[in-house]
Write a structure and sequence with these properties.
The chain contains eleven helices and twelve strands. With 312 residues, it is α+β, with helices and mostly antiparallel strands. The chain has three domains: 78 residues, no CATH class; 106 residues, PAS domain (Beta-Lactamase); 107 residues, 2-Layer Sandwich (Beta-Lactamase).
Length: 312
């Protein structure tokens, strides 16, 4: 203490300090001190008072540290959300007030001044052909106090159409009645454009292609696959592979498809499917994040030619 500049300069002639311990009492995190310009003796009551003050001071210091950490986390979260192009929304179902952040306002073509803060402002931007579906999804989430997840077209004041996906959760009050819907939204237009381009390529392919979800439902079928499988696309989509093609159960098709999903490796094989298809197929199947992608050719004529050549 004597080496401190204020003490050497005579500005501090008396000093009393008590250590500040962390919550576990094992580490000193600071000192609570009082001092004065005149020499003096500190009474037992003054020492006791300073010791009593030490605990709330530690509490305040810890609270400040937690607050600073939370604020840092919030800033990082905001930066991450902004970088990802995600907007947030908060719909008060009781008051009817809809709150959007700046990112959501921009996605829907609103300025802060012309946004009315109601669900009608949202519906006004939804493409007319998507309004009924979106409103149905909102109502279903509210009725069940559950999840909201839908993608729709949004028509901006410029006439431009964008695709927006919104996901959220309905929160209930103490009685379990829906009170708020909070969530996030992001622009999926680029994904949609990419999907359209990929679809055009797949449709122009002379080979058959389909994709399956992880629960074995058809999620995409190109025109050639529709022809070779002998079923219309509307019937195939969302249908379960094993229900639509029961003879595939227990066959090489099931063996290889399940192996591809289990191992994460592409599989190539040939297999026969009985009537009504009555055909041999050369199949390439590879896993993707959503399930399984399958490319196949009808090699029945080739197999028959090979069999005929072997019999000669």
């Amino acid at each position: 203490m004597a080496a401190l500049p204020a003490v050497r300069a005579g500005e501090v002639a008396s000093y009393l300090g008590v250590p500040l311990f962390d919550a576990g009492g094992a580490h000193v995190i600071g000192v609570l001190a009082v001092f004065g310009p005149e020499p003096r003796e500190w009474t037992a009551e003054e020492v006791a008072l300073l010791e009593r003050l030490a605990h709330p001071v530690v509490t305040e210091l810890e609270l400040s540290a937690v607050t600073a950490e939370l604020e840092t986390g919030r800033v990082r979260w905001d930066l991450a959300i902004d970088a990802a192009g995600i907007g947030s929304f908060d719909w008060d179902l009781v008051a009817g007030r809809l709150v959007w952040d700046d990112r959501s306002l921009a996605m829907f073509g609103y300025d802060r001044d012309d946004f009315t803060g109601t669900i009608d402002a949202f519906v006004a931007r939804v493409h007319p052909d998507d309004v009924e579906r979106v409103q149905g999804a909102l109502q279903a989430a509210i009725d069940s106090c559950g999840q909201y997840d839908t993608e729709c077209r949004v028509v901006l004041p410029s006439g431009q159409t964008r695709w927006i996906r919104g996901r959220g959760r309905v929160l209930g009050d103490e009685r379990g009645v829906a009170a708020r819907l909070i969530g996030a939204a992001h622009d999926t237009t680029a994904d949609r454009v990419a999907d359209v381009r990929v679809s055009r390529v797949l449709e122009s392919m002379p080979s058959a292609f389909f994709s399956l979800s992880r629960d074995w439902r058809f999620t995409y079928v190109n025109g050639e696959a529709e022809r070779l499988l002998g079923r219309p696309r509307d019937e195939l989509l969302a249908g379960v592979l094993w229900d639509l093609f029961p003879d595939a159960v227990g066959s090489d098709f099931e063996l290889h498809y399940r192996a591809a999903l289990r191992t994460g490796d592409m599989t190539v094989f040939q297999a026969y499917y009985p009537p009504p298809l009555d055909s041999w197929y050369e199949v390439r199947a590879w896993p993707d994040p959503d399930g399984l992608a399958v490319y196949f050719l009808d090699v029945t004529q080739r197999r028959r030619a090979e069999e005929a050549a072997r019999r000669r």
